[in-house]
Design brief:
Elements: H1 23-38, E1 44-49, E2 54-59, E3 68-72, E4 83-87, E5 92-96, H2 99-114
Antiparallel strand pairs: 1-2, 2-3, 3-4, 4-5
Helix pairs in contact: 1-2
Length: 115
């Protein structure tokens, strides 16, 4: 008697893989994060990698709601852009196809903090 292979799961191919930030994206985010930490604006961060999105959350203090969330949603790549910066209130501050352009909304806050 030979062992039979189980039938393929019909929806397995449609399940998305875990979404994460690549090295270049994470480098851009951490560069901005380091500058904001040096100014005393941000103190902690968290990274979540889910099936449909990756999130870099920025906190003023540990164990509070994030000030900002930098999101990567590959499914929105062909529409309004896969990168977004979301504020504490859930409002999308900027969305686009280029991470550096999307992060400029937070860099504007960096310039105001220096003044």
């Amino acid at each position: 008697m030979t062992a039979q292979t189980p039938p393929p799961i019909p929806f397995a191919a449609s399940l998305p893989e875990q979404v994460s930030f690549d090295r270049r994206e994470l480098s851009s985010i951490l560069t901005l994060y380091g500058r904001m930490v040096a100014l005393g604006e941000w103190r902690d961060y968290g990274i979540s990698m889910l099936r449909d999105m990756a999130v870099f959350s920025v906190f003023r203090r540990t164990a509070e709601h994030p000030l900002y969330r930098i999101e990567k949603r590959p499914r929105l790549r062909g529409k309004q852009g896969m990168y977004a910066v979301v504020g504490m209130d859930g409002q999308t501050l900027r969305r686009g196809h280029d991470l550096a352009a999307v992060l400029r909304v937070l860099e504007a806050k960096l310039i105001r903090a220096v003044d």
